[in-house]
Amino acid sequence: MLAILHPNTPLDSDAYRQTLHYLENLPGVTLRVHEVQGASQRLTEIYLLGDTKPLDKEEIEALPAVERAIRISEDYRILGRHKDDHRQSGFTYNGVEFSQNNLNIFAGLCAVDIPDHVEMMMRALEDNGEVCTRMGAYKPRTNPYSFQGHGKGCLPWVFEKAGKHGIKVIAMEITHESHIEEIDHCLEQLGRPTGVMLQVGTRNTQNFELLKAIGRQSTYPVLLKRGFGITLNESLNAAEYLASEGNANVIFCLRGMKTEAGQPHRNMVDFAHVPAVKRLTRMPVCVDPSHSVGSREQSPDGILDVMHATAQGVVAGANMVLVDFHPKPEKALVDGPQALLMNELPAYLEDIRLCHETWKKRQDIYRKLKGTASE
Ligand code: PEP
Ligand code: MN
């Protein structure tokens, strides 16, 4: 059971004390208090864990600080969407809103290489009104002899350039918990010119100790990739690990499944799962068409497969696009062959906007249908 308190309930108020006292004394029940800081208000949620079946929902709702109570299922307790659960989705980070209703584009370099390329990428984003990007500093590579990313050495100049070009959020994969400290230390020293969304790669989706470490901090939101060879349920449970440790600012990213059946694409594109994840959880959903498709092949209609896959995700309601671009793909140190080119950026953004508008219009069509059905 979940008890949602009245917004902005002071933790030193009598109402809060009385409520907590009552809940703490319920037999066989333990409590987990979770604070959600929204743009305009603070919400306190109290999770009642253990033997909650005998509890009376109305009795809990009668407690002075409680606004309403929700019976939650076992799965995805914090991030899940439960019956009669109309809580808001998403969060605001560094001035950028992330929700199940809007869309943010994170175009950028799969791997940071030289300052010139980072500069060109960020300038292009600024020129096109974009405030988010992706920049890989810590790269998990299949081959131990491949370029592993510049690591913390590149952080100062990447963050400085981001600040200079008005970039507010950088999606950056980390592969070890020590990287959180490296990123935080660097940002702090520079006076926080930009923000970072910590990315958990598909190879680490079930690295539970890493998930717990990331979940214990709430400074940075998290982009969790779906595991490439596990079920959707297993990947959503991985996301719940982050929330269960305290960080519910999580975006779930579909990036394709590893199977020979996906050929000629690098992975089997799984963007039909966008609405499924939005139904099962309250997380905003991201699609990564670059790592799904993995090439610059194009169809006879003149549109690249990466762009088609993006459109499929966005038209189905995706809330974020994570996509590889590079000013000189032949010089890229990681994943050059799948990168989109700088001169393709404006058209690609226009295409995405069109698809997002189309998704909104599609909702109108079915809303009208529901309206007529009830007449
Ligand atoms: C990436 O986004 O750079 C990446 C390595 O993706 P994935 O973890 O999905 O393979
Ligand atoms: Mn890559």
Task: Detail the topology: elements first, then pairings.
Elements: E1 2-5, H1 14-24, E2 29-37, E3 42-50, H2 57-61, E4 66-70, E5 91-93, E6 96-98, E7 104-108, H3 115-127, E8 132-134, H4 155-164, E9 169-173, H5 178-189, E10 195-200, H6 208-216, E11 222-225, H7 232-244, E12 250-254, H8 274-280, E13 285-287, H9 289-293, H10 305-315, E14 320-324, H11 345-374
Parallel strand pairs: 7-14, 8-9, 9-10, 10-11, 11-12, 12-13, 13-14
Antiparallel strand pairs: 1-3, 1-4, 2-3, 5-6
Bound molecules: phosphoenolpyruvate and manganese (II) ion.
Phosphoenolpyruvate binds at residues 110, 136, 173, 201-202, 225, 255, 288, 291.
Task: Give a structural overview.
The protein is an alpha/beta fold and 375 residues long. Helices cover 34% and strands 18% of the residues. The protein has 11 helices and 14 strands. It has helices at 14-24, 57-61, 115-127, 155-164, 178-189, 208-216, 232-244, 274-280, 289-293, 305-315, 345-374; strands spanning 2-5, 29-37, 42-50, 66-70, 91-93, 96-98, 104-108, 132-134, 169-173, 195-200, 222-225, 250-254, 285-287, 320-324. The strands form 3 sheets. Strands 7-14-13-12-11-10-9-8 form an 8-stranded parallel beta sheet. Strands 2-3-1-4 form a 4-stranded antiparallel beta sheet. A two-stranded antiparallel ribbon has the order 5-6. Strand 11, helix 7 (232-244) and strand 12 (250-254) form a beta-alpha-beta unit. It is globular, with a radius of gyration of 22 Å. It starts with a strand and ends with a helix. It binds phosphoenolpyruvate (PEP) and manganese (II) ion.
